[in-house]
Amino acid sequence: MAALPILLLSIALLFGGAVLAHLIGAASVLSFFAADRARFLAAAPQRIIAHIDLFSIMSMPLFILAGEIMNRSGVTKALIDLAMALMARLKGGLGHVNILTSVFFAGISGSAMADAASVSNTLVPAMRKAGYTSSYAGAITAASSVIGPIIPPSIIMIFYGALMNTSVAAMFIAGILPGLVMAGALFAANAWIAHRHNHPTGERMPPREILRRFVYALPATVIPVIILSGIVFGIMTPTEAAGVAVCCAIIAGLIYRQMTIRKLIESLERTAILSGSIFILLSAVAIFGYLAGLEQIPARLAEQLIGLGFEGWKYLLLLNVVFLVAGMFLEVPVALALLVPLLVPTGIEMGADPVHLGIVIIVNLTLGIVTPPFGAALLVVSAVSGTPYWSIARKAAPFLLVQLGVLLLLTFVPEISLFLPRLTGFVN
């Protein structure tokens, strides 16, 4: 009963605008007293340090910095121009360009929201000019932004790896096939809609122009290749790959002649803000996880769910529902911090692979940002493009249905996620 006032106070403070990291930390400390475990608080600082003092988590601020630099240094335009050269001549070509651009961006920023904002500012006006409706242009932009956190490098994967002490390299490699499957499903959906609604076909570019754009985009496209090949072949750890990514981002900016000291300072400032907020959240979660371990909450939760019949595929479905709904209302790092320490150990106790669960959870949470009524990516696209929110949401519905189908496929066919990690020796 002592936990009930703490829970009610936490909910009230959450809706009152309290900082979530402070809220989780304070509620966890109070719960130690409520559970008569206050004597264990003396070890809390040590647990926090152990939780965040990981070599793999050092890659997170470096990947954030690489993405920030590349977003400011001309890489975005080079990738969009290349996608236009490859896809624009097809039926509904600019829709394909939108999706392919998201695949390219995924290998750079790993952020769905950054993808949605950047593409909304560039491709949505181009699609309008070509004859697409604003709502369809916004819908495919929001839907394709989901690819960002799935294809490595992904900040969310690093965050999950830190929470569950799971190999970040294994998570990166596991995300390649699911991300490509998601992109393929979106390509197919856009092609079907394009033929049904007679979307325009773009101009065919001469081979010389395609080659010119490909060569121009090489500094941008080679960065993800260096990162992934270095990790897959054991040349670099994820942290070393992140450092290389920062150097490559700076070099690419110099090649495109858009890298300035001011832009570098802005990138560093933004990285410090984002990294600081994530580390504070991880520290608060460490205290919560410490208490959950002392109270054996995951084991008790597993027993309760098994008693209710939620095991095996039923538990995976329950996870999908919980994380999809959480992604609709909470920021992805927040949802991970709140739910992963509670629900993922239960799944692992039931026999699920932590890497497979991580991919399923990340796809769930990213789908939440394109799911009404509070889909964050839909809101971003609406705000940037000036298109009404609900008109975008309606046009995004077919894409969301296709993506939910991909989610179920990834959930019940673990080999899609685990094939490459097993092939490269990162998963047994």
Give structural notes.
With 428 residues, the chain is mainly alpha-helical. The protein has one domain (37-423). 77% of the residues lie in helices and 0% in strands. α12 (207-232) packs antiparallel against α13 (238-255). The longest helix has 34 residues, at 261-294. The two termini are 44 Å apart. The relative contact order is 0.15. One of its GO terms (cellular component) is plasma membrane. The complex comprises the extracytoplasmic solute receptor protein and the two transmembrane proteins. Residues 9-416 form the TRAP C4-dicarboxylate transport system permease DctM subunit domain. GO terms for molecular function: transmembrane transporter activity. Belongs to the TRAP transporter large permease family.
Strand content: under 5%
Number of structural domains: 1
Order of helices and strands: HHHHHHHHHHHHHHHHHHHHH
Task: List unreliable stretches of 5+ residues.
Answer: none
Coarse shape: globular
Count of DSSP H/I helices:
21
